[in-house]
Amino acid sequence: MAELSTIARPYAEALFESVCDDPAGLASWSELLSELAQVASVESVREAMTDPRLDDAQRVGLFSGLVKTPLSAQARNFIELLVGNDRLLVLPQIAWQFDTLKNRREGTALAEITSAFALDDKQVGQIVVGLEKKFGLKLKPVVTVDAALIGGVRVVVGDQVLDASVQAQLARMRDTLAA
């Protein structure tokens, strides 16, 4: 079976191209896709969408009814396309790739910052300023805490990882000593 990202890419790219000039804006489509992805991630919804007793029209109606945001005709058509091609459950990957395309168009990127301890806004701001100089992009930080890092931070921007955590330094020392 193909990777989910490989399956999701054509849908994300096609949707992105079709809504680039939409008056609603890319941000509203990004929010809608995020909501659709959340609904598609619920286990009971996943089970219902794979129930062989439901036809495509019933799946579209059921799924659309679970979405709080009113759906435009274009959004409903997109859901119908996904249901018709048995790709509705790939929505989380489609949403992620759509956001990547949106960020690239805006000259921004998502910076996933993982810290051993909670960071205040000033600390996050200092980290982001340094990262923006390094990457030459406007970054949108998403901060999480992982005590397993022991100290320091790990930053993921796109496919690049900067690991300045104590955990990574200890692993490098272990590897050096074992060699």
UniProtKB/TrEMBL annotation:
Q: From the Swiss-Prot or TrEMBL record, what is one GO molecular function term?
A: proton-transporting ATP synthase activity, rotational mechanism
Q: Which InterPro entries match?
A: ATP_synth_OSCP/delta_N_sf (IPR026015), ATPase_OSCP/dsu (IPR000711)
UniProt GO cellular component terms = plasma membrane; proton-transporting ATP synthase complex
The keyword Membrane is annotated on this UniProt entry: yes
- Mode of membrane association: Peripheral membrane protein
Q: Which keywords has UniProt assigned to this entry? A: ATP synthesis, Cell membrane, CF(1), Hydrogen ion transport, Ion transport, Membrane, Transport
Location relative to the cell: Cell membrane; Membrane
Main location per the UniProt record: membrane
> Which family does this protein fall into?
Belongs to the ATPase delta chain family.
Protein role: F(1)F(0) ATP synthase produces ATP from ADP in the presence of a proton or sodium gradient. F-type ATPases consist of two structural domains, F(1) containing the extramembraneous catalytic core and F(0) containing the membrane proton channel, linked together by a central stalk and a peripheral stalk. During catalysis, ATP synthesis in the catalytic domain of F(1) is coupled via a rotary mechanism of the central stalk subunits to proton translocation. This protein is part of the stalk that links CF(0) to CF(1). It either transmits conformational changes from CF(0) to CF(1) or is implicated in proton conduction.
> Which HAMAP family does the protein's record reference?
ATP_synth_delta_bact
**What's the protein here called?**
ATP synthase subunit delta
The source organism is Paralcaligenes ureilyticus
